[in-house]
Amino acid sequence: MKFTASQIAELLEGEVLGDPNTEVSKLAKIEEGEPGSLTFLSNEKYTPFIYTTQASIAIVNQTFVPEKKVTPTLIKVTDAYKAFSTLLAFYNEVKNNKTGKESPTFVSDSAILGADIYLGAFVYIGQNVRIADGVKLYPNCFVGDNVVIEEGTTLYSGVKLYSETVVGKHCKIHAGAVLGADGFGFAPSTEGVYAAIPQTGNVIVEDGVDIGANTTIDRATLGATRICEGVKLDNLIQIAHNVEIGKHTVIAAQTAVAGSTKIGSHCMIGGQVAISGHLRIGDGVKVQGNTGVTKNIKAHATIKGSPAFDAKQWNRSYVHFKKLPNYAEKIAAFEKEIKALKGEQ
Fold first, then answer.
1. What is the CATH architecture of 100-313?
2. Is 241 a catalytic residue?
């Protein structure tokens, strides 16, 4: 799909300097621009590239004044970085604006489908499913019985929603994610055999949540595993049964949260964090990468280490951790001197 400079300027409320009919069909970094592409300049250290780029259109700040001839048609805006982000969002919306039903698919007779939805090939939709307007299900998605998917949500290829899962409005669930599989609940017998505890709850995902590729969210034993409004989950995250994650919390890849832990709102949790079960983590907590959380954390704390403690204390302690071999050598030398003073061998 092609867009002209004048169309882009209208979308961004910008001013065109050059040919308003210049067309572009793709996006590019300024140093890699080629004919037919659109780029932007917001960081001054990339300014030399504006004079060498082969991009057809460049978005620049209103304050930019060329010192020599530039090849691209320029679109001047108040904030080039923000404008380009707006354009990226628009580009993605247009690119992913699929509708219709591919073949083959299976849709249960009892399912209710909204308007302007997209069903990719090999999508399966179970009994009593309700799918609202504008939902997009890419190929090979599985939607189990009694699932609800609200308006404008997208499930990318291979997403699996087990029965009773509820997904809110304008969510994005990326390829391979699994929502609603059984929680890891087993009861040991006196003979050492583990019997599965039925997992009868569900998963509830509220509005505006993003879930990364191959992330898994287990159904609750009773009640719901709940991912609240605006939460952003990276790829390869494990959320166990009955976990609750508060509004607008973000979690990076390879983090695992054990069962029944409650995480507050506006938290930031780094990659490869392990969080034990049945904990309470307050609002606004920051957990640095590779941390092991084994106890409750008060609101707005910043923690690090395994087991975790205050990040500033951890950083000060680390200065001593890495010197432990030297300390050991000094202690051994002191012990030898003390023995010598005492006349001991």
1. 3 Solenoid (2.160)
2. yes
